[in-house]
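hiii so um. not sure if this is the right channel but i have a protein structure encoded as tokens and i wanna go backwards to a sequence. like what aa goes where. can anyone help
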């Protein structure tokens, strides 16, 4: 969270896998109840309904304004950041993002969606919040994650933001983003998860929990039988090869440019891809985009004061 005058600037990265703020990460999967859930946890009460976050991921949708899930997740992110400072009433400026190629067409509708209730009251973990949404800024999500590294981006650079739902690719040449060279591909980490689960089911007739797959992606191992581990590892490597094929489709050449990788797919590329890591920069901070949104927003508000 950044502060400008009386405004609390809160960056929120609305991922299909996780909702990230500058300091918190919560799985995006949400269940909605009319009555209070039995167990405590990431439960938000808003507009007469209870939203429990943290179980699984949200299915991919091309328009994040289609339902209330991302709005409720926004309130959750605000509450989690404010609660760190024991603040329960505040004027908030939301700093958020969209995939690179969606920004132009969806910026205003997403902004209106996030600001639809200028004054909103809700409860999170037994604490009541009274928030005034004073403003909202929408930025390209991959670019925000590398804003702190622009100073080193001389020459030609490719940015690959590998999220749960999509891969966003952008060229940044001599520290400036190239708007004509931005692409979005629906080949996010969730596609890897689906391929792994299908392979295990087809080969062994067993269903595998995503938690096991996530552990293998992050650490290269899990407490499971070798035949399952080998099958899962093979599918993750195949996915990593597909990602490299996408990058090469957009003319990635390790000898001519530096590659910056961010997003939830960083661990896959780090542990399973055949890359020339001497010319690759891994942004392993999963909260990098949310922090970047806050940085860009603060700079903008200071210029406009």
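sure thing!! here u go:
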């Amino acid at each position: 969270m950044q502060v400008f005058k009386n405004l609390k600037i809160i960056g929120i990265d609305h991922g299909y896998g996780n909702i990230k703020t500058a300091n918190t990460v919560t799985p995006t999967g949400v269940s909605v109840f009319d009555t209070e859930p039995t167990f405590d946890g990431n439960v938000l009460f808003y507009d007469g309904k209870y939203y429990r976050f943290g179980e699984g991921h949200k299915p991919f949708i091309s328009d994040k304004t289609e339902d209330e899930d991302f709005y409720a997740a926004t309130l959750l992110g605000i509450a989690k950041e404010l609660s760190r400072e024991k603040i329960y009433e505040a004027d908030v400026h939301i700093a958020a993002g969209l995939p690179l190629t969606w920004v132009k067409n969806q910026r205003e509708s997403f902004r209106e969606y996030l600001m639809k209730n200028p004054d909103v009251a809700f409860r999170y973990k037994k604490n009541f919040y009274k928030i005034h949404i004073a403003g909202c800024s929408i930025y390209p999500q991959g670019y925000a994650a590398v804003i702190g590294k622009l100073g080193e981006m001389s020459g030609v650079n490719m940015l690959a933001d590998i999220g749960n739902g999509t891969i966003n690719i952008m060229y940044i040449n001599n520290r400036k983003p190239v708007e004509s060279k931005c692409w979005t591909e629906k080949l996010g980490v969730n596609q890897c998860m689906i391929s792994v689960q299908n392979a295990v089911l087809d080969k062994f007739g067993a269903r595998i929990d995503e938690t096991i797959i996530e552990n293998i992606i992050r650490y290269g191992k899990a407490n499971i039988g070798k035949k399952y581990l080998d099958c899962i590892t093979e599918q993750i490597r195949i996915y990593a090869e597909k990602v490299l094929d996408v990058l090469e489709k957009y003319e990635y050449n390790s000898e001519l440019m530096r590659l910056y990788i961010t997003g939830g797919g960083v661990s896959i590329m780090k542990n399973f891809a055949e890359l020339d890591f001497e010319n690759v920069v891994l942004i392993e901070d999963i909260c990098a985009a949310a922090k970047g949104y806050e940085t860009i927003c603060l700079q903008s508000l200071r210029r406009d004061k």
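oh and The domain at 152-282 is CATH 3.30.420.40 (Nucleotidyltransferase; domain 5).
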